[in-house]
UniProtKB/TrEMBL annotation, chains A, B:
Coiled coil: none
CDD domains: BluB (cd02145)
Protein name in the entry: 5,6-dimethylbenzimidazole synthase
NCBIfam families documented for this protein: BluB
Domain spans labelled Nitroreductase: 27-192
Keywords per UniProt: Flavoprotein, FMN, Oxidoreductase
Record EC number: 1.13.11.79
Single GO term (MF): 5,6-dimethylbenzimidazole synthase activity
One Pfam family it belongs to: Nitroreductase
Amino acid sequence: MPEAMTAPMGDGFEQAARDAVYRAMFTRRDVRSHFLPTPLEDEVLAQLLLAAHHAPSVGFMQPWNFIVIRDAARRAEVRDLFLAAREQELPAVVEERQALYRKLKLEGICESALNICITCDRERSKGSPLGRWHNPEMDLYSTVCAVQNFWLAARAEGVGVGWVSIIEPKALKNLLSIPEHVTPIAYLCVGRVSEFAPKPDLETHGWGRRLPLPDLIMSETFGGQGEAPLKSTASRLNGFVVERACAADQRVAPAVPQREPPNEASALSFNSRNFDDASASLASQAGSGTWPAMVLK
Amino acid sequence: MPEAMTAPMGDGFEQAARDAVYRAMFTRRDVRSHFLPTPLEDEVLAQLLLAAHHAPSVGFMQPWNFIVIRDAARRAEVRDLFLAAREQELPAVVEERQALYRKLKLEGICESALNICITCDRERSKGSPLGRWHNPEMDLYSTVCAVQNFWLAARAEGVGVGWVSIIEPKALKNLLSIPEHVTPIAYLCVGRVSEFAPKPDLETHGWGRRLPLPDLIMSETFGGQGEAPLKSTASRLNGFVVERACAADQRVAPAVPQREPPNEASALSFNSRNFDDASASLASQAGSGTWPAMVLK
């Protein structure tokens, strides 16, 4: 066998390609507010579906289907399901956050170019349940991997994706004629966008903050101490890696982010002082002075 | 506000960066057989964890933890759990596939550099269950997105990942002291590899084949016909997109794949005729004569 054919094939990508992969992950957003009316080309959509279809699946089961929903009337019905579900969820939120919850823009069902429902056919591997005897939910998890592939490929293509989970699943199944043995995993709003927000909307609006990664690392058992060098490396790398991966996105990189005033649909007031505080906090978590400008791009 | 600061930020990546993202997806493998004894640097592992930590999460809940397991004795115990579970799963497989099932190499627990258990803390967003009232499993799905980010970043870094799902979850929880309210989502074998196989092992060994993407696309409702142009585009793009994205991996690209004889651990005989047949079938599915050489790299 010629030498060239036995060369090791376990190498990583070159730096620029590695950066591109991280950049998709760090700049991906759950898009609700920035959809454009532009149609989405089949050429692009087909590539996103191809990416989804190359997700890992338990027992190579490939349990997914992709329902493309374009009809405006059907989408209006889905949006009604969302609105009803939001009212049902609201009382479960602690009282002091209910006003904020009400103001959050949580879907772009009607204004995105199209919707896609990614489903999981639970019977696709009947008779060959490799890897599912003890963990039957593995087919659902495989389908989620397909969703995440779709989402990352979309970011690379400049296509926004928003996952709507505030919806009653039985009502959705009924509306989309999804049979009993099939589970809808993700209802996605998909389309071109005016921008990818510099941070997750829920972080911007004060619903939550990114947790410090070192706090999430455990050693040997749950809660196990140890891995001090790894934690310290994770802290140190945080700003640097995000910075490098996102460098290509820095066509517009103000040190302090400038944004248009929020539109009515996402009507939370944008408090730049809080924004700065959050950035400073992140910078201190990351142990890197370069973090704020970077994560905000 | 200066012009530069209001420039549109909704663009996609340049071609090379888009290709890198697809390449990670198309060449990612569920690795069982090719782990090397090489240790994995904290610098690299920290980046993979950073990628995982930037996954989307419902309500920005970030429910994940990462248990790093290095201890050889503990890993041997996990492997014993796998071996027991495999014996339990076997009778569920249809009889004519049991011999094949027995021969499949399905984990690299002890021979990989380290193991990571990614868990989901189901109580992390107590009091603020945004997006989980109707779909409480969304936190589990968020954690799966973190797994997929980890996996893709690992591919880019030249690190193999294998997800072991043939394991009794209660026994695993017990072994890793995982509390009741935390769900182990993925038990991963992680480390440097000698190669990333040209195709999924289960495809190579005849357990399954990649389904034709157009068959998985539906229109408006489950089973809905339509989307003919999209399906046709998906067919046409298949070989082409995979080819372009994987071009950088073609340092060694025989038209018909050459592989070392399988080692004892992955002892299925490699039948190159079947392999060719599978390639031909894929090529006809893809409607592209260039597919076989490409998908096999």
